[in-house]
């Protein structure tokens, strides 16, 4: 992140994280709060470890980081994590790939096996829809890891709106140089249910023709976008590679801040955040 981009981010978030000085002590400045939060997200270090580089106590960090993360999401969401509202918005995106990412967490007290999943870890699921530019157009986090990606989808705001026909997805259009109308669909993997508005690959056992194999290849090329977006997100925000040991109610703010920052940096600082050479390219 360049200094210019950082200062712009600081100006956006400062009104929400600035605290008043008291007669007992001076308040921790917005600059210190933001740098501590960004360092936590980028490195995944514990509060106990961060106290040496931030000169802020772990007790204060346990309040500062969730508050600043929530503020980051609040100021960035309207401009950098906007969900399409109109027919034209969806057409501008053209590609919507859906997938879920399991995020490891430390077992909260008294939760038992609530978050225990098939990978023998305690996880929460980040469900996301990604466009062709590797940017998130919708993120939903918090469902426990025992539920499959297809099941998680049913608990999202996106699914509720879709069921009520409130997404304003464009109607089917006539194929160029053809006589068929094709609908707009989302690209998903085999874990999701088969629906008329979702396109998914054939099972491995059913790949008995060349046409089916070619179809699966094309679907995989389209769906890799969401996998790559998660890869970029996790490589820049190493907190996603750690077992997050904070209260579950605060993990939501941390993860949503990562997604909002991902979109913000993709648009404003792409040359260093996600340069073209790290992205997949097709040459045919």
UniProtKB/TrEMBL annotation:
Highest taxon in the source lineage: Eukaryota
Keywords: Hydrolase, Metal-binding, Nuclease, Nucleus
Cofactor names: a divalent metal cation
Subcellular locations according to the entry: Nucleus
Molecular-function GO terms, alphabetical: hydrolase activity; metal ion binding; nuclease activity
Predominant subcellular localization, coarse grouping: nucleus
UniProt domain DDE Tnp4: residue ranges: 98-263
Keyword Cell cycle part of the UniProt annotation: no
GO annotations of cellular component type: nucleus
PANTHER family per record: DDE TNP4 DOMAIN-CONTAINING PROTEIN (PTHR22930:SF284), PTHR22930
Family classification: Belongs to the HARBI1 family.
UniProt-recorded name of the protein: DDE Tnp4 domain-containing protein
